[in-house]
Design goal:
Length: 73
């Protein structure tokens, strides 16, 4: 699980998580000033396998993106 702090702004945040093939596997939103948690499961409740994932976070017109690794022991 990881958490994304949402900036103190008037706009809500939208976070999309993608696998490396570009398929969106999860989407969530949070109100300004809160924290958005992702538990490592797809939108339909399936745990994601080990691997590299991409994220995109949009707050108003600001968009940031990056990658992270999921590793389950």
């Amino acid at each position: 699980m990881f958490a994304i702090p949402v900036a103190e702004r008037s706009e809500d945040a939208l976070v999309n998580i993608y696998d490396v093939s570009g398929r969106m596997i999860w989407s969530g939103h949070a109100e300004s000033g809160s924290v958005l948690h992702w538990n490592g499961y797809t939108g339909d409740g399936t745990p994601v396998p080990n691997g590299v994932y991409l994220y995109q976070c949009s707050i108003g017109s600001d968009v940031s993106s990056g990658s992270f690794v999921v590793r389950r022991d």
